[in-house]
What does this fold into?
Amino acid sequence: MAIGVTLLVFSLLHLTGDPIRLLYGPNVPEEIVQQRRDELGLNRPVPVQYVLWVGRAVRGDLGESITAGGRVTAMIAARVGPTVELAGLALVVTLAVSLPAGVISATRRNTWLDSLSRVAALFWVSMPIFWLGLLFILAFGVWLHVLPISGRAETFWSLEGLRSHTLPVLTLGLPPAALFTRLTRSSMLEVIGEEYVRTARSKGLAEPAVIIRHALRNALIPVLTLIGLRLPWLFGGAVITETVFAWPGMGRLLVDAVLKRDYPVVQGIVLVMAALVVASSLLIDLLYSYVDPRIRYD
Amino acid sequence: MRRWLTPLVLIGLAALVLPGSTSPVSAQAGPTLVQGLGEEPENIDPQRTNRFHSLVVLSYIVEPLFTLDKDYKVVPLLAQSHTWSADKKTLRVVLKDGITFHNGARLTSADVKATFERYITVSPLSSYVRPRNGGIVGMDTPDPRTIVFRFAQAKPLAMISDLSDAHAGILPASFIAATASSDIGIRALIGTGPYMFKEWVPGDRIVLERNERYRHGPAFSPNKGPAHFQRMIFRIIPEDATMTAEVTSGNVDITFDVTPSGLQQLRGNPNVTVMQAPTYSVQYLVMNMERWMFQNAKVRQAIAHSIDKEAIARAAWLGVGRPVEGLINQATIGFWPGVRQYSYAYDVARAKTLFAEAGWRPGPDGILRKDNDRFEVTLITFSNIDQWRRAGVIVQSQLKQVGIDVKVETAEVGAIYARAQAGTFDIGIFRNTWWLAQPYLTFLTHSVNIPSSNYSRWPNPELDKSLDAASNALDDGDRERALQRVQRIIVESAVWVPLVSNTSLLAAKKSVGGLEILAQHPWWPVHLRALALTRK
It folds into this structure.
């Protein structure tokens, strides 16, 4: 997967212009542009460049940034933490909102709560992240002056940290909550009608215990599947969220690198993101067996 | 349990949204100035970068030997005096006494030599003084305060083009020797400037600390040092709307990265001061002279007459641009005001007459035709810069009025430069920013720079000769006359049609003082930003 993704990105980037001319602009003579191309090995055939890059990458060296001149590995290491933190917290928000909402919507089917949940889901799912972020900035940062507009506090575990994380995390976490709410609802509706749920009720278990221990746990399988499918989207959404909130994450580094044709940085980030998605998908697979003991991996 | 849960949740939420700082790095009253930066520098290594935002930051930290005053006159900064030889091949510079680097080491001629050795090797901007171009072939250091530059050819512009440029900012020789080149300007940077490099949190901020020993500010600065603010924080805020919100909310003290749309919002804010200054940036249109229809001068002139630059300034630049007549403007050293008399004014009737004289007549669809050829062209410009994309559409509409069918094709900057160099376009709208007429006009119009930076693909011996004369003249008067010829030929040819020059924008909180001093210097030199700005 990593080879496929990086090969595709590598090929596409090389079709879109010369990074050194882009970096230096038209005011720098061709001889100096050529000198820099030679230094960076950009005058070699594209397949050779790719093979050399792969050779270094397997040893943990992602090369030298064309624009900054620094080591790509160090650049990404400085930015991966904020992105994982943002995406992780956003996922927590997504689940914290969608699971209760989906359960309530299913157990109070066709009541006003269910209707409210459906309308809210439609509202959030229709909201582009970029637009939602700007609305949050206007409302909570500019008009009400209660939350930071942009930037990231050093640590999450402080009041200032919590405040600085609030808007970006909500911006990234709320729109997908709509989809998860709908899925949880439909999955719960299926499960609630099963015989084992009726059996649990007939044994005299309290309704919350029936819903949470018996119904929800079984309804979580498709939700876990959706989490796995939505992880790439979450990292993609982080790119936009990071730009709007000046969040110092990997997504913004990626945007800058793409605009400047900084091949090594783009490839490095794509590789890291692919690895994160693969690792997260593996974690989801392991969670299947935890949620449903009938699932075993031999 | 439930009785306690609700109040606890409410207290938590209240704490979260208690009115307080609306930025993790907020503008504090007193010792810190928070400056919004619209783009993160890749690095702030003076010798390796040529990016504007890198220059902005590094100019607070390192200093060149000379600098320029508001009239672009060279004034000493680290240098005390200089002497040129009669043939302009030897330049002797004596350094000021007692200047120290941020690490406490004394500035010596050995540091200057080590810096220029690095500059002419790695800087993309050192072309003029590189050895292979007749530049620096030797540097002598007869004593710790004297450096003698020896050039292979006369280099009369070296002082203004290189020795006054922060890209040739002096670094300690020991620092250059002991630091990996890839770490300079990323992990560390040492200079003699009014601020010292303290911290760079990638993607978030760059923090500088005041150089308490700084006392050698340039003559034009009322404050010779140290700077008023103890700390300078550059907050990196790439999104325009977010930057506007941060300025509006007072979390950013000052920013020089205001977009035209942001300006509209900030102008009405009573807590924000907005200022404008001319820039040397020029948006221009160029025709690909390999296309047969442009080889007729009347066609080119007709196109130039068809373009309403005022409309572009108004609609594409939202009022922060101004029409220009030359390929360089009045903010560029070497600009000749007389070029205006050769410019082609907006005159649709005249354009139509010229087209007719060139044999182009309107067809049944209103598009000009000559024999069996329909006048249809492709215009390329940048998709990711609003003012260029909009200008492309406006030009398309204006040329449609005179009977040219223009297809606008936009792409990102890199892809557009690649097309321009490959010649796969008919008309292009590009930009250029440089503060010196020479070598800027050579890059843009000399035949040796086809196709790397001269996108017209039009070799013109007369123009080349004048450009060479402007480069090589030892006498200032000769250079000025040669530059006048160059500017006249460029505008008269109508191969290039200068469009609009924008203004620099500044937005600052009302509590930021010293702006009136900045206003006296039309190009807001960084030394004034560092030394004059204060808190009211």
Notes: Chain B has 17 helices and 23 strands. The mean pLDDT of chain B is 91. Chain B touches chain A through 63 residues (CB under 8 Å).
